[in-house]
Amino acid sequence: MSPSSEQQHPDDADPAASSASSAESTDQSAPESAGAQAPEPSRQQIRRWRKYLADEIAEGRLYADLAERKQGEERQILLGLAAAEKRHEQHWRDLLGEHAQRLPSPSAHRVLLGWMARIFGSVFILALAQRAEGDSPYAHDESATRGMAADEEIHEEVVRALAARGREKLSGGFRAAVFGANDGLVSNFALIMGMGGTGVGATVVLLTGIAGLLAGALSMAAGEFISVRSQRELLDATRPTHATLRAAPDLDLDHNELVLVYRARGLSREDAEHRALERLGAFECDCRPELSVPKDPEDETEAWGGYEVVGSAWTAAGSSFCFFAVGALIPILPYLIGAVGWAAVAISTALVGTALMCTGAVVGLLSGASPLSRGLRQLAIGLGAAALTYALGSVLGVSVA
Question: Degrees (nearest 5) of the Cα angle 139, 141, 147?
Fold first, then answer.
């Protein structure tokens, strides 16, 4: 039978098959027509997308502004982040079309970023930006591409690394300042509350607070100086010396312990043997090992290993003294202006509570955590310590009486 004889006349075709074929062609053409004209977004989608667009514009501007204050590699990294935010911005503009006009204000978090940038500098901004990138809603929003969600995760790691550089520069003296102020607040507030619980007069409470301020500030400064100095001395004791350079010319080429030196420093046997042969002059080496260690171990401006993180002992001690004194002064301010009784207690509690919230928020900013949660934690610890000492003072006052 020829192929032509097997072909069925159109009039003889099965009606059910024709209907199925027609339905199938209709189903296939539906997506094509839908793809040709995207459905109009809902008012809720438009509102959400406009908010996303406003935030992307604010973040891109933030990174660009920070890049202007930086140089070298950090500048290039920040400009790269700004360019990435521009890509995300364009995505939302494409979805919004004619609705990408008269955008709302960015979220409060982005507004806070810009405000903090003008006051505190980049380390605080980067710490906040780290949280903003980590809280991105793109991973759970179908309107955002998977690539955008992945970008936000990578941006968080980039900002985390940049913020870590700033935190290292603020270590030492700044750490002593923040925690010195917090210790002054808590310890002196608890001290005067304990004295107040015994029932003594306002003058005694004031004198006790002043004594606590001086004793605590001196103790903090001395402790911080010893701590930082000890860390620097430990680094001095553990860093490599130039002994291998000085002794290499006089070592026996076949019998020496130079390989053991480098193995003790963590090199593998092969790498240690290679380094030892370099020192002994067996072959040329274009490295300059004399530049790998600071020339003056006593010069605290030299950056080696952990020195930059540890900071200066004198700076740490001075910061601890001053900020502990400032923190310890706040609880006794009402007594200095003549307040007595419960009025003095109320004013002191309000002042200390506000200051604790501020120090906790600063710690939260630097650590990339929520400033509010860290502030509330500091507040709970400070007020809890004061309540406990007041209760003990009340018990002791009754016992003495």
Answer: 50
The two tokens of residue 257 are 């312990």
Which residue's entry shows tokens 């740490």?
316
- In a domain, residue 106? The reply is yes
If you count them, how many residues does the chain have?
A: 401
Which is it for the CA torsion 357, 370, 132, 136, positive or negative?
A: negative
Q: Do 228 and 251 belong together in one domain?
A: no
- For 91, the domain range is 43-169
Rounded Cα distance between 103 and 82, Å, is 19
H or E element in which residue 36 lies = helix 15-36
**Angle, helix 341-367 to helix 371-400, in steps of 10 degrees:** 150
Query: Please, are residues 365 and 127 in contact by the beta-carbon 8 Å criterion?
Result: yes
Q: Are 235 and 245 in contact (CB under 8 A)?
A: no
Q: What is the pLDDT of residue 200?
A: 86
Query: How many helices and strands (H and E) does the chain possess?
Result: 16, 0
Number of domains in the chain: 3
| Same domain? 153 vs 66 | yes
Structure tokens at 296: 């003056």
Mean pLDDT per 10-residue segment, the chain (401 residues): 42 44 42 52 88 88 83 87 90 88 79 67 69 76 88 84 72 68 91 88 91 91 84 66 55 59 76 72 54 44 47 79 92 90 90 92 74 89 91 72 40
- Alpha carbon distance 96, 392 (integer Å): 64
Token pair recorded at residue 144: 């955002």
- Tokens coding 376: 């509330």
- Indicate the helix (H) or strand (E) that contains 348: helix 341-367
Does pTM top 0.70 for this prediction? no
The encoded tokens of residue 91 equal 């995505």
Q: Are residues 180 and 318 in the same domain?
A: yes
Burial of 252 (0-12, 13-18, 19+ CB in 10 A): exposed
Q: Which one of 169, 188, 203 terminates a domain?
A: 169
Same domain membership, residue 144 and residue 87:
yes
Question: Residue 23: its pLDDT value, please?
Answer: 41
Note the helical H segments in 171-201: 173-197
Return d(Cα 206, Cα 193) in angstroms, integer: 11
Residue whose C-alpha is closest to residue 156's, from 164, 166, 145 = 164
Q: Is the Cα dihedral 110, 113, 118, 122 positive or negative?
A: negative
